[in-house]
Amino acid sequence: MRLETSTPCSQHHRILALTTLSSVTALWLSAQRMPLPMQLRIATDVLLLAAWGQVGLGIATLVNCVPVHLGSAHQAGALTLFSVLLFTLHSCRVPHAGRLLARIASATRRAPAPAAH
Cα–Cα distances in Å, from 117 out to 3, 114? Predict the structure, then answer.
């Protein structure tokens, strides 16, 4: 089976779309049950919106026989979805973790070496 032919390529695209959509939806559903910072809550909401919008745009593109304007919008939607995903991942970081790690490393270096017996 060649990847360049239209049918397998479309099938892979649909599988990737459904996997992405179900993963993002499951993430959003689990995030609704957790006490999260406001930035992360907004990020997961926007991620869900972007994923569903991208799938809707993909379906509209196929139904209309792939006009250029919808195909271009679908490509822009993919970039938007990726950007929102990066923002969501950035929002998951622990604030000041880098400073804490630097403080621990500094304290470890300053600690006196154990005396040899």
Answer: 67, 9
Residue pair 60/37 in contact (Cβ under 8 Å)? The answer is no
User: Concatenated DSSP letters for 47-66?
Assistant: HHHHHHHHHHHHHHHHHTT-
Average pLDDT taken over every residue of the chain: 89
Contact 73, 57 (CB under 8 A): yes
DSSP letter string over 2-51?
-SSSHHHHHHHHHHHHHHHHHHHHHHHHHHTTS---HHHHHHHHHHHHHH
Q: What distance in Å separates the CA atoms of residue 20 and residue 81, rounded to the nearest whole number?
A: 10
Tens of pLDDT, residue by residue over 4-50, are 677 888 899 999 999 999 999 999 999 999 999 999 999 999 999 99
* pTM score of the predicted model: 0.77
Characterise 114 by phi-psi region: left (phi > 0), alpha (psi -120 to 50), beta (else). Answer: beta
